[in-house]
Amino acid sequence: MQYMTKAGFRSLATVLGFCALSSAASADTLRIGGTGVALGGMSLLAEAFGAAHPDTEIDVLPSLGSSGGVKALLAGAVDLSVSSRALKDAETEQGAVGRLYATTPLAVVTSIGTDADAVTTPELAQIYAGTLSEWPSGEAIRVVLRPESESDTQILRGLSDDMAAAVDNALKRPGLVSATNDQENADTLEQLPGSVGVIALGQIATEGRKLKVLELDGIRPVPGATDARSQRLIKSLYIVTTAQTSPAAEAFVDFVFSPEGQAVLAANDHTPAE
């Protein structure tokens, strides 16, 4: 089973080319690709599934992103894809079928050595706008941005009108650090002193990331929280199939929704779908 967490992942075109060359591989080799936030969980689920299905090899590919994973699935380059957003109409029209399998909180985080434990939404807006540039200790705050199209960015924008304006401003500011995919985001947040950004708790847990989770508006993110303020920061995860999905891949999907699969997710800061 393959799982990479460092930057410099293969492009979708490379993955498509690799899979075309390896089309003669065993029918019991499953390839899973898509959003980086789900890859750690898929790897743990694949390990648990493999204990009962030793003849099935599961290859969890480097991050393709939600859209890239669906494209690869529809092209036959992967057997299953994972997405951190609901499918688009154009994707379902081409035969993609998405099932919500879990949610996980999105957390505001910083590097381990930062002398801060909490932040408010107004303060976060000031940080992204550039008007608040130091932690209480005097250490410089280093914002780690995600691309405008990313679901993380859209969730941040939804916190308040000021936050939306601050994110839009940050995306235009020169010199800020930007992370293209979820693993690059995690690496940068870990390694950059005084960093601030967002990452899913489920990714922290499944990848063993060393990050400091901050309270936001007095609330610490926890899986399964149902209050309105916690619900602002929730990522939804989908597993995507087509009518051509193989029996072996369908068996893995069934495992994801089984009590054993749900227990793996629940033990790693996910809330399994009901």
Helix and strand arrangement:
Layout: H1 12-21, E1 29-34, H2 39-52, E2 57-60, H3 65-74, E3 80-83, H4 89-93, E4 97-110, E5 118-119, H5 121-129, E6 142-145, H6 151-157, H7 161-172, E7 177-178, H8 182-191, E8 195-200, H9 201-207, E9 212-213, E10 215-216, H10 228-231, E11 234-241, H11 247-256, H12 259-266, E12 271-272
Parallel strand pairs: 1-2, 1-3, 5-10, 6-7, 6-8
Antiparallel strand pairs: 3-11, 4-8, 4-9, 4-11, 4-12
Overview of this protein structure:
The chain has two domains: 12-103 and 236-272, D-Maltodextrin-Binding Protein, domain 2; 105-231, Periplasmic binding protein-like II (D-Maltodextrin-Binding Protein, domain 2), CATH 3.40.190. The chain is 39% helix and 20% strand. It contains twelve helices and twelve strands. It has helices at 12-21, 39-52, 65-74, 89-93, 121-129, 151-157, 161-172, 182-191, 201-207, 228-231, 247-256, 259-266, and strands at 29-34, 57-60, 80-83, 97-110, 118-119, 142-145, 177-178, 195-200, 212-213, 215-216, 234-241, 271-272. Strands 1, 2, 3, 4, 6, 7, 8, 9, 11 and 12 form a ten-stranded mixed sheet that branches. Strands 5-10 form a two-stranded parallel sheet. Strand 1 (29-34), helix 2 and strand 2 (57-60) form a beta-alpha-beta unit. Helix 2 packs across helix 9 and helix 2 (39-52) packs antiparallel against helix 12. The chain starts with 11 loop residues before the first helix and ends with a strand. Mean pLDDT is 91; it is low at 1-27.
